[in-house]
Amino acid sequence: MKAFSVKSSVFLLVILVLTYTLHIEAQQCRPSGRIRGTNPPPDQCNQENDSDCCKDGKYYTTYKCSPPVSSSTKATLTLNSFQKGGDGGAPSECDNQYHSDDTPVVALSTGWYNHGNRCLNYITIHGNGKSVKAMVVDECDSTMGCDSDHDYQPPCPNNIVDASKAVWKALGVPESDWGDMDIYWSDA
Fold first, then answer.
1. Can you tell me whether residue 101 is helix, strand or coil?
2. Across-strand partners of 33?
3. Which pLDDT value is given to residue 58?
4. What is the spatial distance between Cα 104 and Cα 167, in angstroms, rounded to a whole number?
5. 3-state secondary structure string, 144-177?
6. Sign of CA dihedral 180, 181, 185, 188
7. Alpha-carbon distance values, 181 to 116, 167, 178 (Å)
8. Using CB atoms within 10 A of its CB, is residue 144 exposed (0-12), middle (13-18) or buried (19+)?
9. In 3D, which of 172, 157, 146 has the Cα closest to residue 89?
10. What backbone phi and psi angles, to 5 degrees, belong to 66?
11. How far is CA 16 from CA 2, 10, 11, 27, 166, in A?
12. Four-CA torsion 97, 100, 104, 110, nearest 10 degrees
């Protein structure tokens, strides 16, 4: 009876470890492919906020997913202009409108954008010891790029919160440090 009990316990432990491992594995977001960059036509890639332009022959990783969302999701905050003529390019995906740089708005990487399910909803961004609420108005496309629709910029990484100047100001980040910053966010 004791031998049966030990064997059963070991078997149960193995099953639990495998189940946990598969659960962790399922939560990971892996690249879905890559695209080959081409040089943009003259004056077709707006580098207003130090945006990158695609390079001919360089391969860029694409994603259809983002890391799992939690009550404190780690991300990289980047700078974007949602104004007409800004480096955001076209009007925002959620409402087909441009938004002032003085309004706290964001674009989320494809997986977090979730087919528009977060459109016009607020998220809370925590960074630099402060927090701010910002409205989701656009997708930072992780699946495509290097074309006119994407202002000849590479695909977004899968962990981006692309924010207006108003968000950076509200977080109290000195303008000289605007660009990339580690943050945490959650649905508001």
1. coil
2. 62
3. 96
4. 5
5. CCCCHHHCCCCCCCCCEEEECHHHHHHCCCCHHH
6. negative
7. 24, 12, 8
8. middle
9. 146
10. -135, 165
11. 21, 10, 9, 17, 47
12. 40
Locus of tokens 């494809």: 110
What is the per-residue pLDDT for 45? 78
Q: Which residues contact 175 (CB under 8 A, 6 or more apart)?
A: 168
Residue at 14: amino acid letter: V
**Strand runs (DSSP E) across the chain, as ranges?**
33-36, 59-62, 73-79, 105-109, 122-127, 130-140, 160-163, 180-187
Contact in structure between 62 and 143 (CB atoms under 8 Å): yes
Give pLDDT < 70 ranges for the chain: 1-27, 48-49, 87-88
Residues 6+ apart with CB under 8 A from 113: 93, 107, 136, 138, 139, 140
Which contiguous run of DSSP H or E holds residue 4? Answer: helix 2-27
